[in-house]
Every structure is written in C-alpha cells, then in structure tokens.
C-alpha cells in the first residue's frame, strides 16, 4: 500500500514537472538578444547600401561590357554576349530580388504599424526604382506574387512588363503613392537608416519625381506621356543640381570602398578602355577620358588606346600594356566615387530629350548645356571653356541633337553600365559597335536571359516566360522597346 502511494506521488510530481516545463518552454527557449522582427531603420540602410554597392560593381563589370564602356581581356564569354555565362559579373537577378524582398518587409511594417508610417514613402519609391531596373534588364519577371516568400508563394508567376509599369502596385503607381505618403505624413518619428538623404523627406519627393520623369521617358515610345512630363517640368520639384543627387559616397578604405578596389590586381586589370568609348571621347577631345581611364603603359606621350569588345581570348594574344586601364578613381582613389541612384544631370538630359521631342515646352539647348556642365562636375573634371561652343555645340555642324543628348548621357553613366545599355536600347544612341568574336550571331543583346535557377526552382512559370521570349532569347525586345 505504501509502495502504491509513493508510486502515485512520484507520477503526480512527474506530470507537474512536465506541465511546468511546457508552460515556460517558449519563454525559456527564446533568446532575449534576438529580435523577432528587424527594425525598419536597419533594413532601410541595408537595402540602400547593398543595392548600391552590388549594382555599382555589377554595372562596372558586366553593364560596362554591354554598354561598351570597357572591354574584358579574359574571362570574357559575357563580353562576347554569351550572357548565360556570368563570370566576374553578369548575374543581377539575386541582387535585385534580395533587396526587393527586404524592402517589402519595410513597406509591410510601415503599412501595419502606424508609428512606422514614415517608412512607407521611401520604401515605395525604392520598390519602384529597383523594379524598374529588374524589368528593364530582363523584361517580364515575377512581380505581383514575388518579394514575400512563404507568405504568398515561392513559385511566383511572371508579370508582363507593361503591367509592372502601368497597373496598380506597379512602378508608376508606387511612385505616386510614395509621394502622397510622404506629403501626408504628420507623425513625429524621423526617417532613420537613410544613407541617401539623411532623413530628408523633401529630398525623397524630389527623387521620386525625377524617377517619374525617367520611367515616363522610358515608356514614351509606347504611351502618350507628354501631359505628365510637362506637369513634372512645370512643377519644377525634381533633382536640380549635384547637391541634391540620390547617391552615397564610397570610402577610400574598407569596408565601404568600391569593390573593384578590393579585387586582386589581375581581376581589376581584366577591364580596359573600349574602342567605342575611346573613339567617342577622343572625337570630342573630352578630358573625362583622363578621369575615367589612364594612359596605356607602352605609350610614350600619355596616349590612350581602346580595344574592340568581344575578342576571342583563346585565339587572340593581347598585351595589357597596349591598352588603357580604367582610372585611379576605380581602384586607388575610390573615395571620390558614388553609388549612383539618380542625378541632376540624368534628370536634365531626360528633360532636354523631352524638349527636343516637343513633349514639353522648354529650351532643349539650355537643358542640354546644364546637364553637360553638371555631368563634368559630377566626375570632378574641368569643363573646357569652348566645349559647348565647338565639339559639343548643340545641333551645330550637322549634328543630331537627340544623338548628342543621349551620347552625353551615356558617357556620364559609366558607373551605372546597365543604365547606359538600357538607354542605348531605348534610343539607339550612341552607335555601339559590332563586337569582335560574337557568340550571339553578331547581334547586340536587347535583354538579359533569365538565370538557370529560375528554370530549376520555378519551372512551370519559367516555361511560360521562356515561350514568350522565344526560348529565353536575348534578342527578343522588351515591351517598351517594341515597334
């Protein structure tokens, strides 16, 4: 009997202990130093920095090859337009989706928590900016069902580029909603983690309105956008000078210097002046050649020499000393470089183009000259006193003003090589060259291919997108580029 009593007592103790442990299990096994959600200020800084740093590197290594600013001497299948073989760069897909996903967390936090409402406007503006880059590089992409992972689906459908631009929740809609969110914000919480504008909400509105101009011009061949662009110009609340640029500074030393400064010397020396860039800058007697590149080692009088893009490195012997490396600002002195999101010169080149095409009532020459002046200042290069009255004089000596505007914009865009390539596809300027040993039937690509992991991880939706692009063909134009 005594044994049974003890047995019952022991059993009750065990049950009580189990229930007691279960009751406190969550509390005991929760790390008080691990937050359950990330602060939007930390996410905002991460998104701006990670996107700016990684896409600056991507723009230099791969975008500059597509835009023919530089040429790759080796590891250059990408330069020969085998775009499915990224080497030192050429895979922006994960950069774009990772940062769009992290930015979506900021937007969700802002919409769900009134105290964080100050983050809604900037996160919408960043979403529009990065989505624009994504669809302009690839065309139709996962969008409306993307960026949220397990909350919706890990196999999102592909949205058309037209819908990404024009429909609710798309690029233009998010820019408008972002502006409205900022202008209606009356809370006391300040915007933290903002390494673009240091929390200045008015600057974010200027950025958004400059992006409206950028993306409206991008689709101007498909949509009637004159009224909207004229309204933006009349309002005059866009990025107007270099002090208002949407950029953040790299440093001379690690960890926040330009990534090219951290590459081994052999990788850096893989990129030399393109023959296309060389000819354009030389014909203009443009001193930015001395800023962006350096004389080739075998030169005797400080000369520069470019190489035609897309050589067959396995069949061609190239001496590095015969070609110009990129300038010291990209390696030895990267502290003068910016991660460039949007600038005054880009805005004014777009306005000059709009004026020349009679989309707005404005003096195209004045806007062009202001843009050239600001682009020289951006690159820290002195503008020759006669540059705008001789070699770069607007519409003189039989020059096509649109070609002048687009070529000058292309020159200044070297840090954003993908952007230069995208604008070439939109405008046809400058005249890029057929490459040396093409792996794309001597055609210049007009879109990047979807990466191989999409076929493996999102096969059913990828198969539809593949069919719509003639087998993921890099020669199939995106929506705004179609006649």
From TrEMBL:
One Pfam family per UniProt: SusD-like_2
Domain of life: Bacteria
TM region(s), chain numbering: none
Segments forming a coiled coil: none
Protein's UniProt name: SusD-like starch-binding protein associating with outer membrane
Species the sequence originates in: Maribacter vaceletii
């Amino acid at each position: 009997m005594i044994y049974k009593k003890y047995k019952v007592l022991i059993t009750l103790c065990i049950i009580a202990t189990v229930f007691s442990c279960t009751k406190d299990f969550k509390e005991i096994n929760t790390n008080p130093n691990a937050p359950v959600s990330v602060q939007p200020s930390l996410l905002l800084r991460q998104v701006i920095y990670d996107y700016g740093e990684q896409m600056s590197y991507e723009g230099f290594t791969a975008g500059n090859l597509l835009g023919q600013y530089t040429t790759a001497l080796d590891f250059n299948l990408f330069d020969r337009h085998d775009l499915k073989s990224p080497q030192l760069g050429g895979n922006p897909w994960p950069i774009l989706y990772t940062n769009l996903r992290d930015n979506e967390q900021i937007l969700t936090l802002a919409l769900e928590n009134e105290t964080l409402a100050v983050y809604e406007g900037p996160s919408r503006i960043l979403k529009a900016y990065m989505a624009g880059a994504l669809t302009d590089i690839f065309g139709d992409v996962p969008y409306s069902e993307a960026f949220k992972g397990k909350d919706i689906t890990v196999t999102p459908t592909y949205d058309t580029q037209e819908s990404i631009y024009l429909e609710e929740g798309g690029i233009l809609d998010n820019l408008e909603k972002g502006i409205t969110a900022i202008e209606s914000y009356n809370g006391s919480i300040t915007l933290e983690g903002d390494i673009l504008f240091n929390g200045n909400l008015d600057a974010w509105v200027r950025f958004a309105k400059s992006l409206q101009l950028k993306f409206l011009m991008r689709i101007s061949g498909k949509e009637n956008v004159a009224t909207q662009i004229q309204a933006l110009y009349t309002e005059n609340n866009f990025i107007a000078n270099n002090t208002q640029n949407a950029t953040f500074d790299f440093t001379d030393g690690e960890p926040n210097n330009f990534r090219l400064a951290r590459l081994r010397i052999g990788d850096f020396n893989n990129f030399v002046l393109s023959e296309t860039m060389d000819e354009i800058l030389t014909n203009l007697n443009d001193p930015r050649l001395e800023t962006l590149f350096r004389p080739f080692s075998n030169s005797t009088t400080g000369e520069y020499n470019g190489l035609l893009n897309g050589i067959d490195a396995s069949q061609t012997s190239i001496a590095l000393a015969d070609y110009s490396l990129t300038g010291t600002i990209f390696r030895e002195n990267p502290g003068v470089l910016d991660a460039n999101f949007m600038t005054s010169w880009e805005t004014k080149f777009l306005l000059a183009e709009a004026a020349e095409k009679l989309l707005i009532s404005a003096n195209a020459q004045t806007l062009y000259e202001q843009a050239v002046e600001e682009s020289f200042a951006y690159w820290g290069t002195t503008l020759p006193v006669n540059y705008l009255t001789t070699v770069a004089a607007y519409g003189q000596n039989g020059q096509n003003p649109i070609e002048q505007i687009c070529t000058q914009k292309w020159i200044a865009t070297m840090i954003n090589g993908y952007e230069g390539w995208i604008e070439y596809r939109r405008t046809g300027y400058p005249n890029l060259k057929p490459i040396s040993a093409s792996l794309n039937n001597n055609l210049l690509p007009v879109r990047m291919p979807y990466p191989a992991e999409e076929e493996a991880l999102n096969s059913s939706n990828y198969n539809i997108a593949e069919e719509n692009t003639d087998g993921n063909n890099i020669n199939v134009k995106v929506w705004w580029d179609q006649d």
